[in-house]
Amino acid sequence: MAEPRRQQVTTEAPLGAQKAACNAIIDRVGQCFVGKRGVVKKLLAGSLSGGHVLFEDYPGLGKTLLVKAFSKVIGADHKRVQFTPDILPSDILGTKVWDHSTKTFRLTKGPVFTNVLLADEINRSPPKTQSALLESMEERQVTIDGETLPLPSPFFVLATQNPIEQEGTYPLPEAQMDRFILRLSTGYPDTLQHEGEILARRVFWKKDDPTEDLQPVLTLAQFRGLMKSVETDVFIHEEVIFYIARLVRGIREHPMVEVGPSPRGSLALLKVSRAISLMAGRDFVVPDDVKMFASDALSHRTILKVEHVLEGATPERVVQEVVENTTPPSRYRVDE
């Protein structure tokens, strides 16, 4: 395999400015979403990679608040869909209705025509409705009555689901899970101080939704510029590329694994590794960038054998075991 050519950055100023912009996004989101800076960083990395993110955690932990705050801070148009058992694909994608004045069918676009689609409790809708998002998530387009329409750029699906409530829910199929670049968990507040800060801010805001007052820190065009920089300004060494490949193959060949990550999973890990490098002000990927996202990018793409699941094994543990047993490369810069 030929080593990829490095995209040269002419000065350090652009990288410094990009790092500052990313930190400003994280700080502004933190005005509403207390603590969990690492989760916000991962959400930003997934979005800069052009990927969709699934938040899976217990109720009341701020998943919807985080998504709404992030959408406003990056200056993106956003729409929210509450998934329910009776929601139809046309409720998300749109449909064509008969216009009596013109005697023709008129296209009525659904909420999917936006930059950020908040799919709240996505596993409450049946498979037919869930599958309506497959084309839009993969190809950034929608087909309605034979007419294919492009979606705005950028386009992200930021979805939430409750992992413990099974009644009235429909588990996401593997094809849908594979389209999420990351699966994240917000978790409970880390410290007593964070728990108290959440309550104190609620008293100060005097309302349950503080995102109404959030202001963007950059325009949507500037955010698209950051996304482009991830692709053009961040170098990844051949040995780091093969490190990612060894991790993914190690998971597939693990004796507990029934189905391992696909090449889409490898690409997801590569993309978010480059994004977090840009956010750190670096123009090259280091092995720790890959390790940081290995579980978030690969565990939801890993299916274990039934007997090991019954014994308590989890995909996260398998991925972590493979990471620990795979030697990272010592070369990751072009001058080494």
List key phrases describing it:
single chain; 336 residues; alpha/beta; Rossmann fold; Helicase, Ruva Protein, domain 3; 2 domains; two-stranded antiparallel ribbon; 11 strands; disordered N terminus
Fourth CATH level, the homologous superfamily of the largest domain? P-loop containing nucleotide triphosphate hydrolases
Overall geometric form: globular
Mean pLDDT rating: 85
Helix content range: 40-55%
Strand order of the largest sheet: 2-5-8-1-9
SSE string: HHEHEHEEEHHEEEHEHHHEHHEHH
Strand composition percent:
15-25%
Assembly state of the chains shown? single chain
Low-confidence stretches: 1-13
CATH fold descriptor of the largest domain: Rossmann fold
Number of strands: 11
Highest-level CATH class of the largest domain: Alpha Beta
Q: Quickly count the domains.
A: 2
Strand count, sense and closure of the main sheet? 5 strands, parallel
Q: How many separate helices?
A: 14
The radius of gyration computed from the alpha-carbon positions, rounded to a whole number of angstroms, is: 21 Å
Query: Structural class from helices and strands?
Result: alpha/beta
Ends apart, CA distance between termini: 18 Å
Question: Architecture of the largest domain in CATH?
Answer: 3-Layer(aba) Sandwich
What would your notes on this structure say?
With 336 residues, the chain is α/β, with parallel strands linked by helices. It has two domains: 17-231, 3-Layer(aba) Sandwich (Rossmann fold), CATH 3.40.50.300; 233-336, Magnesium chelatase subunit I, C-Terminal domain (Helicase, Ruva Protein, domain 3), CATH 1.10.8. 44% of the residues lie in helices and 15% in strands. It has 14 helices and eleven strands. Strands 2-5-8-1-9 form a five-stranded parallel sheet. A hairpin with a 4-residue loop joins β3 (94-99) and β4. α9 (220-232) crosses α11 (263-279) and α10 (238-252) packs parallel to α12. The longest helix has 18 residues, at 12-29. The radius of gyration is 21 Å and the shape is globular. Mean pLDDT is 85; it is low at 1-13.
